[in-house]
Amino acid sequence: MPTVSDGAACWRLARDSGVLDLNSRYAYLLWARDFAETSAVAWLRGGVVGFVTGFRRPERPATLFVWQIAVAGAARGRAVGAAMLDALVDRLPDVDHVEASIAPDNAPSQALFAGFAARRGAAVSRSLLFGADLLGNGHRPEILVRIGPLRR
């Protein structure tokens, strides 16, 4: 689980990813404080090399919504994202579905969540979450990926 002291490192990973929507450093600090139970960090050689931020949907507390996943360039290709996602869900035994929003052209995220669904023997459904018109500023649409029910 992340601690507040991990928040700045998570912000740097998001910034350096070049693909994630960057929130303020303050947001990552709050996330590490208030949503640590539903988030994860990966460490390598004394530093944070990956994070997953998530939260339980208020109207569906058995659903974990994954907000962002980032892995440092030096740690990519080592299944760090998959390991963090698996460890996080394993830590939450009452979660039976995982949701995430993915841009249509984000092949790495699509592969990550498809692999997770396969490992959990779970169905995957997709629907439009937010269109480009709502997101504005040239943002691509966000597709809601819903995975579940999860096999434990």
TrEMBL record:
Full protein name: L-2,4-diaminobutyric acid acetyltransferase
A Pfam family the protein falls into: Acetyltransf_1
Acyltransferase found in the keyword field: yes
Pathway(s) annotated for this protein in UniProt: Amine and polyamine biosynthesis; ectoine biosynthesis; L-ectoine from L-aspartate 4-semialdehyde: step 2/3
Family note: Belongs to the acetyltransferase family. EctA subfamily.
Gene: ectA
Domain of life where this protein originates: Bacteria
Domain named N-acetyltransferase: residues: 1-135
SUPFAM superfamilies (UniProt xref): Acyl-CoA N-acyltransferases (Nat)
Keywords, in A-Z order: Acyltransferase, Transferase
Molecular function in Gene Ontology: diaminobutyrate acetyltransferase activity
Species in which this protein is naturally found: Pseudonocardia humida
Enzyme Commission no: 2.3.1.178
Keyword Transferase (UniProt): yes
